[in-house]
Design brief:
Elements: E1 6-9, H1 13-24, E2 32-35, H2 39-49, E3 52-54, H3 57-61, E4 66-69, H4 73-90, E5 93-96, H5 103-110, E6 117-121, E7 134-137, H6 143-147
Parallel strand pairs: 1-2, 1-4, 2-3, 4-5, 5-6
Antiparallel strand pairs: 6-7
Helix pairs in contact: 4-5
Amino acid sequence: MNNGDIAFIGGGNMARSLIGGLVARGRAPGTIRVAEPVSALREALHADFGVAAFETGAEAVAGADTWVLATKPQVLREVCEALAAQARAARPLLVSIAAGITTAQIARWLGDAALPVVRTMPNTPALLGAGATGLYANAAVDATSRQF
């Protein structure tokens, strides 16, 4: 697994906390991409963290090795279905922070049960490095991706 670019799909509070935490701990902003449809939020993410910000998920995930699905649970199916062809072609590590959505649902919505999906539930103190996060990886997540 190449731990290259990370794409966040959704730029809300949780994504902002995670991006801020990554940058604060030395992750190069140039390796972080984020999709956020609201222009003011998109511009703020770029201004505050120096990350590449895009209007659509398709733009943000292009070339990213890890995709963080950071949307509201009620829109995640639509987001996954829109990105399904890209996910099947790129085979990224998929990390979901959407509450109540299983790894099996995500893989099904993306059209491939063999995609590596991790479900996690971080909390906003992640920005300060003081948060707690539980993780669950499906069987398709290899040892290198689990370590990452």
